[in-house]
Design brief:
The chain has about 425 residues and is α/β, with parallel strands linked by helices. Helix content is about 35%, strand content about 30%. It contains twelve helices and 19 strands. The strands form five sheets. It has a six-stranded mixed β-sheet with strand order 11-6-1-2-3-19, with helices on both faces. The protein is globular.
Amino acid sequence: MKERLISGLDIGSSAVRIAVGQVLPTPERQTKLSFIGAAEVKSEGVSKGGISSFEEAVSSITACLDQAERMVGLPINEVYVGVGGSQITVQDAKGIVGVSRSDQTIRREDIVRVLEAARTYAQTPNYDILHVLPRHFSVDNQKDIKDPVGMQGIRLEADAKIIQGLSNHLRNVTKAVFRTNVDISELVYLPLASAEAVTTKRQRELGVCIISLGASTTGMAVYEDNELVHAATFLMGADHVTSDLVYTLRTSFEVAERLKRAKGNALPASFEKGETVDLKDYGAENSEQVQLGFIAEVIEARVEEIFERVEAELKKIDRSGMLPAGIVLTGGGAKLGGIIEVARNVFHLPAAIGTPHADSSIPELVQDPSFSTAVGLALWGYEAERPDAQSYGSAPKAGGESWTNKVTDPLKKIFKSFMP
């Protein structure tokens, strides 16, 4: 893996972002992933986490890859790609197998078999499985086992989280990336990648909820005991805040977006009574004074609605107000002023902005929440490719052969046969 490039590609509704890391040796004769490049271009042809215009999406991805290659001075041949949206589902599954060898000792191949049984149990028509993430194992009557390899027993059970996506959705994303002459190392569920970038192992052990605020979607992932407890995606994001301003102020989307980025705040109390702003300063045709406190009230209402959706999910899994590591906000929408205070009020938990925990010489990369997913995708790939990575348990490619190997290899041959 020495000096290998590992890249994460985040195809968002507002922007396509890529983070490029290089695997470097350390003085301790180990390796680390150091980020040496990043690029961001406006996204076209992508809506609500899915491809809405194929050719425009390909052009956006190509432009982003070209920028990154110029920055790092090396070709990018493969990427870890994030997928999200309402087309992805997360469900529980159980696998059960027998251990038939004479010494009744559980081996790694038994783990693979029991996770494959869980995969088969959860398989849904028209969906393809992205991840099989084990939560815990049981051997005979002994429950809550983290790693049963080496133990003795005749009945092995696994409780797992199965993450799967609508087949056509995954194939459209895959095809768009292949059209840029870049291979896909793996497709990764976006909330998992965000968690990889902005939380520590300690936070995931204590209990934490990561909320990734995108342009048109909001993803959440809850971890406890370093395991994924729950994940979900909502079709509501930062663009909905802008749309509310459009309807309320009767202005254009562009003016509302500029105003939100420059003066947007989710706390009306942050502004003095009577403090105003002129819409003409942000591109409106006519001069119009608007109170900043009123704008903040509009923003606050929508942010609270988004957080209340997340809170409803936490109540479903009995984790409302019960996550010691609190709430970590990330994504481009997390840069909105006053959002931490609103999160604390809604969740009654500590809250903070999550920025990528990464080694990099590019400060704007590791300090920008909007790059969390791209950085997390690369970190996910780094952990998956480490020589000591397990083929089960917390390893990203848990459960044997990944979706990418099963599905994209045939697609790759078909798509590339049409390329010059």
